[in-house]
Design a protein that fits this description.
With 346 residues, this protein is an alpha/beta fold. It folds into two domains: 131 residues, 3-Layer(aba) Sandwich (Oxidized Rhodanese, domain 1); 206 residues, Rossmann fold (3-Layer(aba) Sandwich), CATH 3.40.50. It is 51% helix and 13% strand. The radius of gyration is 25 Å and the shape is elongated.
């Protein structure tokens, strides 16, 4: 049996069944629904050839070429699904780009093989439209802000450990949000996949909120927050933590000085122009000498100005300012929770 389902239903369904993306490997790598497995109907080259034949000779000719490619592999598709479903229920959800012939044919095949099949209406394209429309809706946010080096990411982890709902944007982006943010991180996802991963966290059936997130600029490394999500985030209550600069310097020294000096100076050069050549050269020299303090203070001065400018730009939101004397993340998490208890955050 084949049951059509809509994009908004896929978030609960994929927790119960195997989600199969039948697009080509290149399409899958560019972006896919989190948790999906790839059983491609066509290879990348086959997909290109079918597309070319469609343009040159029409739908019927393209269909025949496609059948030539997949006819001998139909049993392989079912065998792959058997392996994926081993020990689980025989329920699958299938999608392609638009919910057309590729997913319909695979849905028919899997249904014939005895599986209960859900077919995503409108395919991956409909899913993408849905998540971009729903980005940031439905669940209240609490945005945690503070100058660079305040330990916001660690504080979010502490809040999560205390039972708060948290979405770590920098973890999803594989970047800590500065020119040094890529150091020690895995490769960033494509922007498309980042949006998908964010939607998966945001639209989780367990997400009743409020959800804590870190105050970010639109771009986090090479990826960007969806416009609707970013705009909503900048209109939510901001918990602004003020940590002494000395504590922030200590944190950043501990966090970054284990990396190669050449990597640190290379990152520093990316902001050489706005900081000023003379200051950057002196900072690079101090890094080379193993004296990280002046370089970090220079960079903090730059990012503090940037953050103050951003705060002024989005000054219409409610701000709860909290003064701290420590850089300890656990202590600051407790301090934040104590302060917001008496404030209404919705």
């Amino acid at each position: 049996m084949i049951q059509p389902v809509k994009a908004n239903e896929i978030f609960s369904l994929k927790a119960e069944m195997v989600l199969v993306d039948v697009r080509s490997p290149a399409e899958f790598l560019q972006g896919h629904i989190p948790g999906a497995v790839n059983i491609p109907l066509f290879s990348d080259s086959e997909r290109a050839e079918v597309g070319t034949r469609y343009k040159q000779a029409g739908k019927d000719a393209a269909l025949l070429v496609g059948l030539d490619f997949v006819g001998i592999r139909m049993s392989d598709f079912v065998k792959k699904l058997h392996v994926l479903c081993r020990g689980n229920s025989r329920q699958v959800a299938v999608y392609c780009w638009r919910g057309g012939m590729r997913s319909a044919s695979m849905a028919w095949l899997f249904s014939t093989a005895g599986y209960s099949v859900c077919l995503l209406e409108g395919g991956y394209k409909a899913y993408r439209a849905y998540i971009r429309e729903e980005a940031g809706k439905g669940v209240p946010m609490i945005v945690l802000g503070g100058m660079t080096g305040s330990g916001k990411t660690e504080i979010l982890r502490e809040l999560k450990a205390k039972g708060e709902k948290v979405i770590d944007l920098e973890h999803l982006a594989s970047n800590k949000g500065s020119v040094f943010g890529y150091l020690g991180q895995p490769d960033q996802p494509t922007n498309e996949q980042f949006e998908n991963n964010l939607a998966d966290a945001w639209l989780s059936p367990d997400n009743s909120g409020p959800v804590w997130i870190e105050d970010e600029s639109r771009s986090i490394g090479a990826v960007s927050l969806p416009g609707p999500f970013f705009e909503r985030m900048k209109h939510q209550p901001l918990v602004l933590l003020h940590v002494p600069v000395e504590k922030r310097v200590e944190r950043l020294i501990a966090e970054y000085t284990g990396f190669e000096k050449s990597a640190l100076t290379g990152a520093l050069m990316k902001i050489a122009q706005p900081i000023g050549g003379q200051g950057v050269q002196e900072a690079a020299k101090s890094i080379g000498e193993g004296n990280f303090d002046p370089a970090i203070r220079l960079v903090l001065g730059y990012y503090d100005k940037m953050y103050i400018r951003a705060l002024a730009k989005f000054n219409h939101r409610d701000i709860i300012s909290i003064e701290s004397t420590t850089g300890d993340a656990a202590a600051n998490a407790a301090l934040i929770l104590k302060h917001i208890t008496g404030n209404t955050v919705t």
